[in-house]
Design a protein that fits this description.
Layout lengths: L2 E7 L2 E6 L3 E4 L5 E5 L5 E3 L6 E7 L2 E2 L2 E2 H12 L15 H20 L11 E7 L8 E8 L2 E6 L4 E5 L2 H8 L5 H7 L4 H15 L10 H21 L11 E6 L3 E6 L13
Antiparallel strand pairs: 1-2, 1-12, 2-13, 3-4, 5-6, 6-9, 7-8, 9-10, 10-11, 13-14
InterPro entries: Ntn_hydrolases_N
Organism: Archaeoglobus profundus (strain DSM 5631 / JCM 9629 / NBRC 100127 / Av18)
Protein name: 20S proteasome A and B subunits
């Protein structure tokens, strides 16, 4: 399980996540929770393009981390289906190539024998700057149950994964509230009116587009940390946890890690 956060401001975009990876048994119950999954990636080294993922941590027997790095290698290769022009690419172009690789070449191939309802779900925010872009762009990808959906994210604050606590903070109520009211017999049209009213009266604006990138980083850090602490004390397995990872993407500085874990010692493995 996961909490994935995306904060977009004028100066750039921030991606943040926890590191918990949950393994389920055949009956769908939590078998174990590991705390060192990788969920944030630079999609092209040297370019301001990044991604954060939630949902299933693998496609078949390959982890999302391995697949994303395979995709990154293809983008930098001479493969005409994947190579991008570093001086003239767009974020949407990268997103479309990412879908081709993840969904068509891997997801459909791995789960070809499964019924659509049995195919796992994986989500991504892909964010950054087009080669000639002046403002950050964010796209959301939903891959699951035999299909995919691509959409551009306009909101300055987006989150997904186990979103209960973040929804309570931002929207002012649990995402389960409307379902509970529906169970009590409230009609659909009234629920829609109620949802709009609650948003108008309770939702809080945490992001101003003019806020500095450091404040966007601090907000993302706060939201992930709060979700981790909430998961620790609620009943059940702590399926949000482990080290917090944060990356900031700006037009001129590019993709920069703010918080990052390593399974190896940087001192013993200096980068060349």
């Amino acid at each position: 399980m996961t909490i994935a956060i995306c904060v977009k401001v004028y100066d750039g975009v921030v991606l943040a996540s926890d590191s918990a990876g949950t393994i389920l048994n055949a009956s769908g119950e939590v078998w174990n929770v590991y705390n060192y999954a990788n969920k944030i990636f630079n999609l092209y080294k040297g370019l301001p393009i990044g991604a954060v993922t939630w949902g299933s941590g693998n496609i078949g027997d390959l982890s999302i981390s391995t697949l994303v790095k395979d995709f990154r290698k293809k983008l930098a290769s001479s493969d005409p289906d994947y190579q991008i022009d570093k001086e003239n690419y767009t974020i949407e172009e990268v997103v479309d190539k990412f879908l081709q690789f993840m969904y068509v070449e891997n997801y459909l191939e791995a789960y070809n024998d499964l019924d659509d309802e049995d195919k796992p779900y994986i989500g991504f925010y892909i964010a950054g700057y087009s080669a000639n872009g002046t403002h950050p762009e964010v796209y959301r990808l939903d891959i699951g149950f035999g299909d995919f959906k691509k959409s551009e994210v306009d909101s300055p604050l987006a989150w997904d994964g186990e979103y209960e606590v973040i929804s309570r903070i931002v929207k002012g109520y649990s995402p389960m509230l409307l379902d509970v009211l529906s169970e009590l017999g409230i009609q659909e049209d009234m629920l829609q009116d109620l949802s709009r009213y609650l948003s108008e009266r309770l939702e809080i604006t945490l992001v101003h587009p003019a806020m500095p990138i450091q404040d966007a980083i601090d907000l993302a850090d706060f939201l992930v940390d709060t979700a981790i602490k909430f998961a620790r004390f609620r009943p059940g397995a702590p399926t949000i946890g482990g080290p917090i990872e944060i990356a900031a993407i700006t037009k001129h500085e590019g993709f920069k890690w703010v918080k990052r874990k390593h399974y190896y010692s940087r001192e013993l493995n200096p980068e060349r």
